């Protein structure tokens, strides 16, 4: 079986984890946490970064930082993971779903402004599959209406929009290091702060609402409960694992991009024949090869394809169930239709893509895909 995903080991994870354990200080904000945060700030020019226990928690911190309250509205795509919505729901806000684009599963940026009301407080952007949407236009809309822009960049580490890192466009951004991501520590996330007014409070919120970090630095004689917060700091053991991955990011990205490009090249004939639709790559973007997907013509074709590939030893997967159709939120969404989001829910399929795929693996997946779509259906 060729799995859909397999986390890559660079070789130094165990060494760094053992060093963290042997240091006797395995809680958060140790030397490996600080090394990871310094890496992100130096490589991408982010004003300030804080490691978190997950991308979900990074978005929760963002919701706290912009003081989301009952009655606020946040515009988010429907075709995304539930972690994009839950942080705002937990704060009592209403999420307003925007449809996907006809060109891409990401949100249709041109529809966003029509959804803004006097209650709108923020826009949350998601870049599907690591391919940036028009994030600059979203920031322009946010600034025009005095809204916050939060970037759910869970899948988008090392992706760029016109030479700027995707995470640099939002007032706040969040990344994921879940085991399915290009760079992983099993579970983990990162809050990126590009608006300096949030830096000091973010440090307090992620430290259970205390000024403990200031106490450790000797800035206060004791630490106290000074704000509402929670425990968002990961163990330095996880940060040690993550640092080993980050040190090999260029090598990892190069290999993933090579696989992605080979898929695209070998399957392009199916797009020419209008049997599938391959990912759309806007001008001026650099994606990170997080996901290779294509769009089938129907739900039935996709299901038949998944079954065929499984029978031939290859694990392929569909992706999100639209949030506006979810049992939890369907009644609150109302009857506004989001046809493109529904289309991707029914027709999008993802191929295996991970660092340790061999050339034979890639050839096997593409040959089976070509065989399925080129075999006459009875």
Automatic annotation (TrEMBL):
The keyword Transmembrane does not apply. It comes from the Bacteria. Keywords: Aminotransferase, Pyridoxal phosphate, Transferase. The keyword Transferase applies. SUPFAM superfamilies: PLP-dependent transferases. Its EC number is 2.6.1.59. GO terms for molecular function: dTDP-4-amino-4,6-dideoxygalactose transaminase activity. Pfam families: DegT_DnrJ_EryC1. It is an enzyme of class 2 (transferase). Belongs to the DegT/DnrJ/EryC1 family. This is dTDP-4-amino-4,6-dideoxygalactose transaminase. It comes from Mucilaginibacter boryungensis.
């Amino acid at each position: 079986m060729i799995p859909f995903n397999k986390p890559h080991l660079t070789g130094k994870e165990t060494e760094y984890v053992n060093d963290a354990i042997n240091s006797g200080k395995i809680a958060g904000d140790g030397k490996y946490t600080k090394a990871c945060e310094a890496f992100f700030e130096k490589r991408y020019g982010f004003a300030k970064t804080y490691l978190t226990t997950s991308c979900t928690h990074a978005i929760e911190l963002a919701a706290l930082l912009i003081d989301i309250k009952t009655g606020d509205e946040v515009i988010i795509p429907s075709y995304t993971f539930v972690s994009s919505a839950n942080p705002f729901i937990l704060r009592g806000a209403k999420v307003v779903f925007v449809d996907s684009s006809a060109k891409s599963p990401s949100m249709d940026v041109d529809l966003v402004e029509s959804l803004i009301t006097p209650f709108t407080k923020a826009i949350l952007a998601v870049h599907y599959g690591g391919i940036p949407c028009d994030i600059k236009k979203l920031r322009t809309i946010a600034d025009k209406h005095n809204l916050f822009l939060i970037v759910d960049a869970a899948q988008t580490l090392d992706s760029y929009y016109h030479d700027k890192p995707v995470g640099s466009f939002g007032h706040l951004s969040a990344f994921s290091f879940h085991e399915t991501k290009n760079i992983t520590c099993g579970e983990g996330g990162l809050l990126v702060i590009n608006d300096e007014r949030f830096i000091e409070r973010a440090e307090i919120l992620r430290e259970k609402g205390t000024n403990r970090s200031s106490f450790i630095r000797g800035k206060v004689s004791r630490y106290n409960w000074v704000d509402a917060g929670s425990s968002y700091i990961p163990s330095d053991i996880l940060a040690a694992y993550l640092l080993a991955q980050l040190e090999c990011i260029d090598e990892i990205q190069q290999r993933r991009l090579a696989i992605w490009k080979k898929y695209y090249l070998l399957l392009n004939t199916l797009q020419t024949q209008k049997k599938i639709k391959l990912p759309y790559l806007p001008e001026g973007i650099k994606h990170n090869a997080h996901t290779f997907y294509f769009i089938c013509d129907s739900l039935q074709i996709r299901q038949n394809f998944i079954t065929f590939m499984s029978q031939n030893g290859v694990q392929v997967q569909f992706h999100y169930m639209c949030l506006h159709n979810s049992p939890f939120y369907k009644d609150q969404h109302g009857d506004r239709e989001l046809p493109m989001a529904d289309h991707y829910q029914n027709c999008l399929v993802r191929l295996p893509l991970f660092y340790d795929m061999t050339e034979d693996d890639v050839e096997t997946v593409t040959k089976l895909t070509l065989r399925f779509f080129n075999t006459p259906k009875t």
